[in-house]
Each structure stands twice: as structure tokens, then as C-alpha cells.
């Protein structure tokens, strides 16, 4: 049992035998795992492994074909509205409007998330200060850097103070400084509010640096779950890295060049979209 300062941590996400089929194609094949309250949990796997599909099911955007999931004590199937109140979501694709200011983007989401009208302004200010974006509240978001956009999206996902944040590739396409800035804020969020953070990434170094535990998916199946050192140990290789573990459990390869190319392409697409 995972403990923190000697206190037992409860599961805030519990997934049992979750299966998702698209027609005959099995995108998720009877996946089971749980995430403890306050954990930073990395959900890794090659492209097409089922990461985004899992997140979409856990935030009730997609329904599962079989199996069950409980978030913050609420069933995905029986209490989807309560699940939605318990979670914040930063999607893989960009989710801010470049033609609006940072403040306007936040206000739009505050009404979508049903933040009480009287509290909206105060909460937005608090979050902009927390993310060190307060100087830019009147700036059009199309003039933001990639890192600032990601922070704003995280801010939007925090407006209703959810206990769990889902982030789908939050740092893809960011430069190292942007990535570090995003993570400094996510770690602070966890430390201050004990927010559980469930995220996907293609950067093994990042997963290793921030995660309490890691799950590696491969072709819709959970290949392994554990701490970084547990995963490394299972490769039975001396001085194994997380890259080694990833390759060991997915049979795939990590192509630095390919991922960089994709990042650049995505970065460009982001610019086009906001321009
Ligand atoms: N709406 C959909 N209809 C059909 N196939 C889908 C749909 N969404 C995802 N898939 C397929 O499911 C698999 C897993 O996709 P996804 O969860 O996006 O993977 P990942 O995020 O790990 O890259 C992929 O083969 C993808 O093509
Ligand atoms: Mg994905």
C-alpha cells in the first residue's frame, strides 16, 4: 500500500477491466489500475496505445464498452455529472481562443464550469497570479508562447477546484523552459491542494522526474505499472533507464528524431490555429 508521511492514501481513480471497442477494433483491452489521492501518475505508451481514449473515458467524454471506473468516489456510469465536477481536463489539442484575451478565455470557461457568478472574477485573478500570468490578462492569447498557452489551459481546468486533473500531453511541443515552467506550477498545485495529476507524455525524462508511479500501455493493454525504479528493475538490465523500460514493455523504439519532428509540426499547427 502506498503511503505518504505514513498516512494511507486512498484511491481517487479506480479502473476495473475497462474495455473500449471502436467497431471490431479493441482500443482498450480489460485495463485495471488505480491512482492514489495526491499522486502524480504518468500514463505512457506509443502512439495508438489508447492513452487519449482512456482519458476521454475517465472524464466521461466517451463511454466504455465494458468494465467500470470510479473517480473521487463516483461511478463513471452511474454518476457522470459528479465525475465531471471532480475533474479538470487539459486536452491534447489546443483549447483556448487566440482572438480572446487570457481573462476572457478564463471567463468563458468559468461559466461553462458553473463557477458561481459572484466568485468568477476573484477565482480567475487568483489563478492568473498563481500561474504568473496576471500581467498578461489583457493580452490576446494568439500572442502567447506555447508554455503560456498551456498554463492558461491548466488555469481553465482548475477554475472549479477539481481534486483530479487530467492532462493529455501537456508539454508536447514546448521548449525545455516552457516545460519546466508548466511542471513547476503543476507540482505546486499538487503540494498546495493535494491535486491528483494524471498525465500522458512522450518525454521519458519528464515522466521520470515528476511521477510517483507510471503505467505503460501497449496496444490497448496495460503492460506494467509501478514506480520508476520498479519498472527499471523489471527489465533485468543493469543501469536500465526509463527509455529501456519503455522499449522492454512495448517492444517499440524511441525515435528522438521522429518525436522532434512531430513536435515541430504540432508547434506549427498551434501557431497557425492561433494566428
Ligand atoms: N473515435 C475513434 N474511432 C475509431 N478509432 C479510434 C477512435 N479514437 C481512437 N481510435 C483508435 O484507438 C487507438 C488508440 O487511440 P488513442 O487513444 O488516441 O491513442 P494514444 O493517445 O495512445 O496515441 C488508435 O488506434 C486510434 O486510431
Ligand atoms: Mg493521444
Describe the structure.
This protein is an alpha/beta fold. It has a domain at 98-161. It is 41% helix and 24% strand. It contains 10 helices and 12 strands. The protein has helices at 51-58, 80-86, 102-112, 117-130, 146-158, 176-193, 204-210, 228-234, 242-250, 256-274, and strands at 3-4, 7-8, 11-22, 25-36, 40-44, 66-71, 74-75, 87-90, 164-168, 196-200, 213-218, 221-226. The chain has a 6-stranded mixed sheet, with helices on both faces. The longest helix has 19 residues, at 256-274. The radius of gyration is 19 Å and the shape is globular. It starts with a strand and ends with a helix. 38% of the residues are buried. The model is unreliable at 256-262 (pLDDT under 50). Bound molecules: adenosine-5'-diphosphate and magnesium ion. The site of magnesium ion has 4 residues, from helix 1.
Q: What radius of gyration results from the CA coordinates?
A: 19 Å
Give the helix level as a range of percent: 40-55%
- Average per-residue pLDDT, rounded, comes to 90
Structural category is: alpha/beta
Q: Strand-and-helix sequence, N→C?
A: EEEEEHEEHEHHHEHEHEEHHH
